[in-house]
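[job 4471] stage=fold_predict status=RUNNING
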Amino acid sequence: MNRKKRTGGLDLDAAAKAAAQAIAGDKQASEMLETDAPDLQRAISYLTAFGYIQPLPLQAFGFMSPVLGAASIKTNVQAFQRTFGLDETGELDESTLNAMAAPRCGCPDVQMMRAEPVIWRKRELTYGVQNYAPGLPRSVWDGIFEAGYRHISETFDLKFTRVTSGTPDITIFARRIDGPGSVLAQAQLQPGGDRPLWLQFDDGDRWVERLSGGGNEILALNVFIHEAGHNLDFDHIPPQSGKALMNPMYDPRVDRFQPADVQYGLSKGYRPAQGGTPPPPPTDGAWRITLEVDKRTGAARLVG
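[job 4471] inference complete, writing structure tokens
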């Protein structure tokens, strides 16, 4: 499975690299953001990969080209800081760089706005397992998948059944993403039409069923339910909006949907599970952050 992020057939991983190389040597940008070139290059790659920088398509050249200057990068850094509840300095300070280095989901934080929500039209979905990440027995992984889907079914009016033949609605597999830490897993969002989707674990991370106190342990159930949420077309919920399973960063303390997650699912059009009681909405109702991008300069303006 090719994990490169693409928009309109254009490679966003390549765009991130191009953006980083174009800006990292810019002395003005380094001085404005008060950081050195290596940190700036890593930050540009991160911001592009996770949607804070939207490269502009130059169709004549056949690739995504970043049209960015130091001022617009600072705006993008502020968008990241706002999302994660950090001081909006626009500088790549220690707290910002540490947040960018934390274990997280590989899906973008910033999604392009769509005219209307997309959800599964059918309520009975199937899933299949192509292979398993190392570290846990297959029987334990199977139990994690069953427990995760059971939690979703107890929250929303959806049913999940495992199949071993044919094309399932959701295919689960493990393959290398970036090794230990950083991106733990990723999943496709539903584009509409009940199309088959995939959910991928990084086979380089240390997956566990429960924490034992060892270093770099990642709770598989927490990550699985988060990624399964993406398959339901859930976007990331910004940490500044409060604790949620759909926060982009991994949190070992959160292993089930929080009120913000449930309210977001209901707002998209999913029905609550029979007998379920919808929770009160989050206090601020802020479930996503979006950017409005200037098509000429690439500069971004916060709109959410």
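[job 4471] summary: Residues 1-12, 57-67, 280-304 have pLDDT under 50 and may be disordered.
[job 4471] exit 0
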